[in-house]
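About this split. The held-out portion is used to measure sequence recovery: a designer receives only the C-alpha cells and must propose an amino acid at every position. Recovery is the fraction of positions where the proposal matches the reference. Here is one held-out target exactly as it appears in the evaluation file.
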C-alpha cells in the first residue's frame, strides 16, 4: 500500500519542496543532496510508493535502514527536500505522482521540480528558465526567473509529477537548466540553486563548498549517472519541441 511514513515531528507552514530525483546531469540529485547537507536537514519521512524500487538504504556510521526515496525537512527555512538514491523508471513515474498528489494537497506544499536540458560542452554559465502550473507563474515572475525561449517538454519522473500538477491545477514550478548530458554537472546544480531555488524558496544557500568539491562530486555521482545511461529507462530531462525540422 502506497504511503508516506512521517518519522519526525517538524512544524512547517505551506513549505516549498525541492524535488531531487536523478536525471540529466544529476542536477536535481546534486542540488537536493547539497541542501540536505548544508542545512543539516532532518530525515522527515520515508516514501513507500508503488514504483519505487524495493531496496533498503543505509548510510556511513548509521545502522538505521531507510527507503531509497525520502523527505528531509528544515523548520527554520520552512523547506522540504525530496531525496532519491535510485532512478525512478518512467513506467513507475505516474504511480509516484499519484502517491505524492494527495499529500501535496493535504500539506499545502509548493513543489519546485528540477530538470536538466542537455547541451554541448561549454565554458558559458548554464542558462536557467522556469515553467509553472497553477499560481506558480506568479511565483516565477516575482522571482525574476527567465521564461522558455522555445517550445519544449519535460519527460521522465519529473515530467510525470509536473503533468499531475497540471491535471489538478496545483501550484508548482519547474526549473530547467542547461547541463551536461553525459556526466554529473555540479555547475548546473549551482546555477539552479542560486538563480532558481533561492528566490523561489526565499532562502540563502552557500554554494562555495559545492563549487570547490565539483570534481569530488562528479566522481561520487558518476556511477549512478553511468547506470542511468546504460539502462533502458528514460531519465528526467527537458528537450525542445521544434515544430518544423
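Reference sequence for scoring:
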Amino acid at each position: 500500500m502506497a504511503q508516506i511514513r512521517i518519522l519526525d515531528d517538524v512544524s512547517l507552514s505551506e513549505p516549498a519542496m525541492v524535488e531531487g530525483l536523478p536525471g540529466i546531469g544529476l542536477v536535481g540529485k546534486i542540488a537536493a543532496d547539497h541542501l540536505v547537507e548544508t542545512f543539516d536537514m532532518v530525515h522527515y519521512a520515508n516514501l513507500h510508493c508503488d514504483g519505487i524500487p524495493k531496496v533498503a538504504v543505509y548510510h556511513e556510521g548509521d545502522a538505521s535502514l531507510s527507503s531509497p526515496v525520502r523527505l528531509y525537512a528544515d523548520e527554520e527555512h520552512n523547506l522540504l527536500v525530496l531525496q532519491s538514491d535510485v532512478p525512478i523508471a518512467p513506467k513507475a513515474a505516474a504511480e509516484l505522482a499519484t502517491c505524492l498528489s494527495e499529500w501535496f494537497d493535504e500539506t499545502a506544499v509548493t513543489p519546485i521540480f528540477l530538470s536538466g536540458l542537455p547541451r554541448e560542452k561549454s565554458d558559458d554559465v548554464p542558462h536557467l528558465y522556469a515553467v509553472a502550473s497553477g499560481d506558480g507563474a506568479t511565483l516565477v515572475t516575482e522571482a525574476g526567473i527567465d521564461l522558455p525561449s522555445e517550445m519544449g517538454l519535460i519527460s521522465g519522473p519529473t515530467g510525470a509529477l509536473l503533468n499531475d500538477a497540471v491535471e489538478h491545477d496545483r501550484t508548482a514550478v519547474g526549473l530547467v537548466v542547461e547541463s551536461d548530458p553525459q556526466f554529473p554537472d555540479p555547475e548546473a546544480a549551482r546555477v539552479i540553486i542560486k538563480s532558481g531555488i533561492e528566490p523561489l524558496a526565499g532562502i540563502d544557500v552557500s554554494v562555495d563548498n559545492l563549487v570547490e568539491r565539483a570534481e569530488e562530486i562528479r566522481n561520487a555521482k558518476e556511477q549512478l549517472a553511468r547506470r542511468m545511461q546504460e539502462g533502458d529507462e528514460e531519465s528526467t530531462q527537458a528537450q525542445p519541441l521544434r515544430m518544423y525540422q
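Annotator remark: The chain has a mean pLDDT of 87.
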